[in-house]
Write a structure and sequence with these properties.
Blueprint lengths: L3 E2 L3 E2 L2 E2 L5 E6 L4 E7 L3 H16 L1 H4 L3 H17 L1 H12 L3 H21 L6 E3 L6 E9 L2 E5 L5 H15 L2 E6 L5 H13 L6 E5 L2 H10 L3 E7 L2 H14 L2 E5 L5 E4 L5 H13 L11 E5 L3 H13 L19 H16 L3 E4 L14 E4 L6 H4 L6 E7 L2 H8 L9 E3 L3 H10 L6 E2 L18 E2 L6 H4 L2 E9 L13
Parallel strand pairs: 1-5, 8-9, 8-11, 9-10, 11-12, 13-14, 13-18, 14-17, 16-17, 18-19
Antiparallel strand pairs: 2-3, 4-5, 6-7, 7-21, 12-20, 15-16
Helix pairs in contact: 1-8, 3-5, 3-6, 3-7, 4-5, 4-7, 5-6, 8-9, 10-11
The chain binds nicotinamide-adenine-dinucleotide.
Nicotinamide-adenine-dinucleotide binds next to helix 8 and helix 9.
């Protein structure tokens, strides 16, 4: 029996769902809530509402300053509701409460940041090379946005889409993942409370093959903002062949963390452990490939093993817990399969590789000494608490190993040598390089990947531009009659 029912938010109202599915608490493996399964018809209603809102005077004529105030209010509401939202996210995804609380508190700042930027985004005037013609370039909202997010950090991944999209004056239909959608459906109540006009923000959940496909291929959608895995991204790009929507993709990673012998090894070990075991490794920026200088490898691995084995695993709602379960059983099956294949292929288990406690989807912090870079655990994004370790003997070899992946989302470099840090930061193929730190993010800083890690950037000033399109307005300022029409001016 489940004790909670969630609803989609479409056109300013919470719908009674026509179809539902069970959501499972990953810490127990049992269903705890019913979620609405949006149909293609529901998607059509949501996109229709967003399209009407886009053209409505209420939204179109609202000043950018007023839009910004709504976003700031939304940020304040998120901050005021951290406890409830965090509890729901922890319940529905298994992410530990101390992480959900901290992350959601910061989500409020993302809305405030984009609220502040809303009326600072301007068009331009061009000193055009033609007499008596005046050109202004208006920056206009691109249109209806379809945003699709995965289950990890849904509130955060939505904020980097909703914030700039609403600041730019777009309207949006946001699809929560079918895994763990509770926090986003609860967040819809705050959107309602903030006072956005009906249809400006619509939030629903459902499955990828119908709801997600219809949303991203819908003829009234002009912009798709997708976060998820690369294979789903390919399906989304195929969907957008229908509507030719401008699309950005935030995808997965196999991020290297390079530890040189001259680094502060204790700091580096803490960063490596947090980089891979925070969020039970279910983070797009998880530092899942450790590249460590051979001269300190044994010592460094011993530190990591000690720290990994000391991690408190347990109930994600308990503030003392340091690592919770994986979000889905599917996820654990996949990780167990790749780890088994990697060990058969020659990987050496340093620690972990087991199911530690209880009936939930738990998996122990795992470290594999990979030897060579061909093992499946080195190549595949596991999206779990599995660290693969490779040794290097020179800076050139470290760089070659770091770049030996089709992904390029994040990376870390630990060294006390400033010039080496600069060289590595310049030459690593990744959208983010953290030097002597890891996992820092900010609304002020662009984020996104190289290669299979994605297309486009989220965060920072330029994100608003990605939700606008320019309109060039040419005005003839002369009173003279128009001359010969067959000569282009
Ligand atoms: P996923 O790709 O399976 O699903 C993501 C979303 O796409 C879900 O909402 C799903 O319903 C939807 N979807 C599925 N099929 C679809 C289709 N045919 N058309 C439209 N939508 C469809 O991802 P996941 O397993 O939920 O999440 C894990 C992945 O997300 C990992 O690869 C991870 O690295 C990535 N991720 C990336 C970032 C980033 O910012 N770069 C952040 C978090 C997660």
């Amino acid at each position: 029996m489940t004790d909670a029912v969630f609803r989609n938010f479409i056109d300013g109202r919470f719908d009674e769902p026509s179809a539902t599915f069970d959501s499972v608490d990953p810490s127990t493996g049992t269903a705890w809530a019913r979620m609405p399964a949006a149909s293609e018809a529901d998607v059509d209603r949501a996109v229709g509402a967003a399209h009407r809102a886009l053209r409505s005077d209420l939204w179109r004529r609202m000043t950018a300053t007023a839009r910004g105030k709504l976003l700031v209010k939304l940020g304040d509401l998120v901050a005021a509701n951290v406890g409830r939202l965090a509890e729901l996210e922890t319940r529905d995804t298994g992410k530990i409460i101390r992480e959900t609380r901290a992350q959601i508190a910061y989500v409020g700042d993302y809305y405030r940041y984009y609220g502040g930027l809303a009326d600072k985004h301007e068009g331009t005037h061009v000193p055009v090379d033609k007499a008596d013609l005046d050109v202004t370039i208006r920056s206009e909202p691109i249109g209806v946005v379809a945003a699709v997010v995965p289950w990890n950090s849904q509130l955060f991944l939505s904020a980097v889409k909703l914030g700039p999209a609403l600041a730019a004056g777009c309207t949006i239909v946001l699809k929560a993942s079918e895994d763990g959608p509770a926090p986003l459906l609860a967040f819809a109540e705050l959107v309602h409370e903030a006072g956005f006009p009906a249809g400006v923000v619509n939030i629903l959940t459902g499955f990828g093959h119908d709801c997600g496909r219809r949303l991203t291929s819908h003829p009234l959608v002009s912009r798709v903002a997708f976060t998820g895995g690369p294979s789903t991204a390919r399906a989304v790009v195929r969907n957008t062949a229908e509507n030719l929507a401008y699309t950005t993709l935030e995808l997965g990673g196999k991020s290297p963390v390079v530890v040189f012998a001259d680094a502060d090894l204790d700091s580096a070990a803490n960063a490596v452990v947090a980089g891979i075991f925070a969020a039970t490794g279910q983070s797009c920026v998880a530092g899942s490939r450790l590249l460590v200088e051979r001269s300190v490898k044994d010592e460094f691995l011993a530190r990591l093993k000690r720290k990994a084995e000391a991690i408190r695993i347990g109930d994600p709602q308990d503030p003392a817990t340091e690592m919770g379960p994986l979000a889905t059983l599917r996820q654990r099956d996949w990780i167990e399969k790749v780890v088994a294949e990697s060990l058969t292929a020659g990987g050496m288990l340093v620690t972990g590789g087991t199911r530690p406690v209880g009936s939930g989807f738990y998996y122990a912090p795992t470290i594999i000494d990979a030897g060579g870079s061909d093992l499946p655990c080195v190549r595949e994004e596991l999206f779990g608490p599995v660290l693969s370790v490779l040794a290097f003997d020179s800076e050139a070899q470290a760089l070659a190993l770091a770049n030996d992946t089709p992904f390029g989302l994040a990376s870390g470099v630990f060294t006390s040598n400033l010039s080496k840090a600069h060289r590595m930061a310049r030459d690593i193929h990744a959208g983010v390089v953290w030097v002597n730190t890891y996992r820092a993010v900010s609304p002020l800083v662009p984020f996104g990947g190289y290669g299979l890690s994605g297309l486009g950037r989220e965060g920072g000033l330029d994100a608003i531009r990605d939700y606008t399109r320019s309109k060039s307005v040419w005005i003839n300022t002369s009173d003279e009659p128009i001359p010969d029409p067959f000569v282009m001016r």
